[in-house]
Write a structure and sequence with these properties.
Blueprint lengths: L2 E3 L4 E5 L5 H10 L1 H5 L11 H16 L5 E6 L2 E12 L4 E8 L8 H16 L4 E7 L3 H9 L3 E12 L2 E11 H9 L2
Parallel strand pairs: 5-6
Antiparallel strand pairs: 1-2, 2-3, 3-4, 4-5, 6-8, 7-8
Helix pairs in contact: 1-3
Length: 185
């Protein structure tokens, strides 16, 4: 089973069916905040919806096509981070993430992303990781900037978000750039 230890209080674990209520409750408690940038929030209306999401992520993991992990902080589900899919031919992937409102501002997501990046490059032997973020989502934009990703440009009207199209910045990090950054501190 997939598990990454972040620090004494935080770890990443694959989501399991038994986490459906926790995932739904976290989503529901943060619905207004999450809805600003995540299209799927309105489709999550019950624990059954969270259970169906978890079932799909378990299939994703079994098919060796990435994962979705719960971010557990002091024993409580704080958010989700994962790989959208893995392109094994090109050894690349993209990371997606979100945190419940009460867990934001603690550095949890930066640390979780750093652990996933390390896992992708060292365990999965990938060569490239992308993060796409809506250009106005300033909290999420800070994550790839903090972690040494390069802003590779803007995709106009990349996503329909409830009542408008939003642009996305695309950030990339290669294994060579990651290794160079580690060597240079």
């Amino acid at each position: 089973m997939f598990k990454l230890l972040i620090d004494d209080h935080t770890d990443l674990r694959l989501l399991e069916i038994r986490h459906a209520d926790d995932l739904y409750n976290l989503t529901n408690q943060s619905r207004t905040t999450l809805r600003e940038w995540l299209f799927w929030v309105d489709f999550t209306q019950s624990p059954k919806d969270s259970m169906m999401f978890i079932e799909s992520t378990m299939k994703q993991f079994c098919q060796n096509n990435g994962f979705q992990a719960g971010i557990w902080y002091k024993g409580e589900l704080a958010g989700v981070i994962g790989l959208h899919a893995v392109n094994w031919t090109n050894k690349s992937t993209s990371i997606g993430y979100w945190l419940g409102e009460k867990f934001q501002g603690k550095g949890l997501m930066t640390n979780a992303c750093a652990a996933v990046i390390e896992h992708c490059f060292n365990e999965l032997k990938l060569n490239r990781i992308e993060i796409r973020v809506a250009t106005e989502n300033h909290k999420s934009l800070a994550i790839p900037n903090r972690l040494g990703f390069q802003n590779e440009g803007c995709i106009k009207s990349a996503e329909w978000l409830y009542d408008k199209y939003v642009d996305h910045n695309i950030f990339g990090l290669t294994k060579n750039d990651y290794e160079s950054r580690k060597l240079n501190g």
